[in-house]
Each structure stands twice: as structure tokens, then as C-alpha cells.
Amino acid sequence: MIPAEVRSALVEHAQAELPNEACGLLSLRDGVAERFFPGRNRAASPYRFELEVDPEVWFLEDDGFELAVFHSHPASPPRPSRTDVESIGLWEGKPYVILSLRTGELAAWTIADGAVHGLPLA
Amino acid sequence: MIRVRIPPTLRSEVGGAREVEASGSTMREVLADLAERFPGLGRQVLDGDEGVAPFVNVYLDSEDVRTLDGLDTEVSSGSTVILLPAMAGGEQTLTPSLLETIGSTPLVELPRLAPHSGVKLYAKLEGQNPTGSIKDRVAKAMIEAAEAAGELEPGRELLEPTSGNTGISLAMVAKLKGYPLTCVLPENATPERAKLLELYGARLVHSPASEGSNGAVRLALQLAERDARWFMPFQYGNEANPRAHYEGTGAEIADALPHVDALVAGLGTGGTLMGAGDRLRESFPELLVAAAEPLQGDLVYGLRSLADGYVPPILDVAKLDRKLLVTNEESVEGLRLLLEREAIFAGVSSGAVIHVARRIAEELDEGVVVAVLADGGWKYLSAEFWTRPAEEAGAAMEDRLWW
Questions:
Q1: What is the pLDDT of residues B306-342, one digit of tens each?
Q2: Which end of chain A, N or C, is surrounded by fewer C-beta atoms within 10 Å?
Q3: What ipTM was reported for this prediction?
């Protein structure tokens, strides 16, 4: 679940980064997003992202948080692209959130073994 | 000792530890030490001997080593190395420009044309470039090099002697970048090519059929001398031509194959043989570079017989290990074999190239031969090379320019 204030933080960051894709990490506890950590898109591109974020955020899992990787799709639906699937790397099977700026939809997924599964998002 | 923090996603590789210790004075040594003690972690973190694997970022204290000196970054005792997931992706549903679709062509195995099972034969399908030929690479490289050097700016016009493919590629690039283009082409270039050039918006100036490609070069040089508004990329003498093949064609083949024994390409300007040959020799020093060359007077037109008198300035003949002469009939035969056995509909010079590639493959007990097929067959349909009796089709090459 992504509460309204976290959702608006995502949208605000994604819009500020236009025309480029935006990215960041979300920390969740018991399935509820608590905070958005905006990242820097090292690729600085409308078609690509490479997430750069304070390294300490990655270790929040040690404090009982779950993490979700976030990025925006400026022009396409919030479904993982082929590039997203191929680049999933160490984030196999973990929460993956995409915001479409074209449709305003936010969607959550997991990607594993080349397959995409939707996660319910309230 | 150096402290290495392990992210949760990698801890299974180190028995669940949140951090481990490592030694080394550079990041390369630290990661090698880790890989030796934790092979599973090594596989996740290191990409062969080359560098950091694509899905991992390496930080020294709070700095990404890519912003420092990469694997050469010095690491002192007491510092902290942090391994992190590298997340990348992107929608990539759009290509920002047609120019970005140039290159990265398929490299396809041709099992039905390999003379025996010890040799693998591969074809680089350059007909998959946006205008259908390898010259897209050259046109883009030459124009962008001239722009970068300040030699080409808005208001200037392009002029190029060409019997076809280079002109079509230049016309595409010039249109997208906003430069008018005039092509000087021999009167006997195929009608498909002249038509395509006009459709792409190029202006045509014809040179005498009897003088072939050399006549077009001569006339273009004369025109350029007379009028300073012309900028002539001149593929025969432009270093951006072999460079496009060094950085593109050759690098793509080197990336795709663990080993290459022979590279075969047609001898036109020499750009492919020089550029891709140089690049592949760096990876495979024993590489044999072979040119498919038409018999003198028996021109697989556009393929250039050196005996015919013109040596392009970018061509260093000493870098060609072999030059194999090909008759028009053999080119036609190669062309038909490509289509009949491998379902590859290729252009005329590809027939000559595949003929030579198979001859070289026959000489090897085992190995890998790569043939660069410069274009597709579409622009040659009017000649009916695929349907006429072979001898007649070979003879029909005599009076037209095919390259």
C-alpha cells in the first residue's frame, strides 16, 4: 500500500525530473510505504534510468523495512519494459514500482526469471 | 584490513554476514580477494576479469568508484567498501532518432553454407540498417565527424560521388540533419538506386557510364573545387569511414564471438576491411583479413579491382592478408546459395563475399569465419540475378554499376 502523501512525493519527484525518467527507493513496513527516497538518474535520459541513491538507504532492510525500487515511465504505461526485465539483476522477486506520467497510474510488480507479476496496490 | 559491507540481497553468498573483511591496495585487488574467498560473491560482483558486473555498484566509503578511478581506485586500510544493487532499466519504447537505429546488426550463423562441420560461418547482416546497407554507418560517421570538426555547418551543401548505397545513406542522414545533398553517379547505376536517391531528396548529377565509379569521383572533385559551398565527405579518403567500422562493425563482431579466425568483406572503399580488420586483430591477433575482389575487367561493380587503377587513400593494401578474385558468375552463385540455403536475400557484393568466405572456410580444419554482407537484395531486383541462367546473370553484371 502506498499512502497518499508518499504517492504525491513520488509524483512530484517524477514530474520535476521530466523529460527524464525519475528513480528512487521506497521504504515499507508491513506492506505500507513509509517514505520515499528520491534518487538521481545517472543516465539522465527519457528512456533509461540508473539509480543512484544514498548507500545507507539500501541497508534499511536491516532495520526491519522492506524496500521497493521506483522509477517513472514518462510516455508509456506503468508496466516493466523489456529493459526493466533484463536489468532486474539483484532485485529479482522484490517489489518494483512504476509510475506512468502519461496515464498517472502507479503499479507494483515483481520480476523473476524473466517473468513479470503484478502486486496489488491500494 | 578493509571492511566490506554486504547488502541483504548478497548475504547468502557470504554465509549471511552483514560485513566481511578483505585486503588489497586497489579496488581491483579487494574485489579479487573477495572473489577468491567467496566465489559466489565473485560471480555476482565481477564481470570476467574486466570489471564490476552490471548488477552491482561498488562504493568506497560514500563514493561510487565509477566517479573515482574505477577498479584502479586506491583503497587504504581502514576504509569501507560497500557493495550495492545496481538498478537500471527504462521504458525505451521510443527511439529518439532513426540515426540511432544504425549498426548493432545481427550476426547470424550459416550452418547450411559452412563447407564442413569443423568451421562455423557467420554473416553480419548489414542490410538491416535503416536504408538497407552498411553505408549508413559510414554516412553518419562522416557527417558527424565533419560537424564535430566545424567543417560542416548549416548553410553548406553535401556533394558525394557514389554509385548508390553511400548516396542513399548520406541522403537519409542529410535529410534528418537538414543539409541538401547532390550525388554524382555513373549513368549506368541501377535504376532502383537513382530512384531511391531522388525519393530521399538528393539531387543527381550523372557521370559517363564508360568511366565507372572513377569517373564519378573525378567529376565530383572538379565540382567541389569550383564551388566552396560544397562539402564533400569523400568516403574513399575519409578516416571516419574505417573508424565507423572499427568502433561499430568490428567491435560488434568482437563482442559477439569468443574467437574469430577470418574476416571477409568486399573491397569497395576499403573502410570495412581496414576498420573492422584493425578492431578484430586487437582481440584476435592471428586473424586473417580477406578481401573479395572482382577480376579485372570482370567487375562485380562497386567492388573494386585494385588492378583497375584506383587505390582509395584510406586503404592500406598491406593490411589485407588475402585478396581473392571473384568472377561475376561466382558472385551470382553465392547470391543464390545465400537465398536458397539460408533464406538471406542479399545484394550482389554479398555473393562475392560469401564465395570467398566459403573458400577460406574450406581451407580451415576448424575455426570461425565472419562474412560482412553489405546490403540486401532489394535494389537489385531489376537484374533478376536469382532467376536468369547463371552465366547470363553474370554477363548481365557487365553493363551496370551494382555497388
A1: 555 667 889 999 999 999 989 888 999 999 999 999 9
A2: C
A3: 0.90
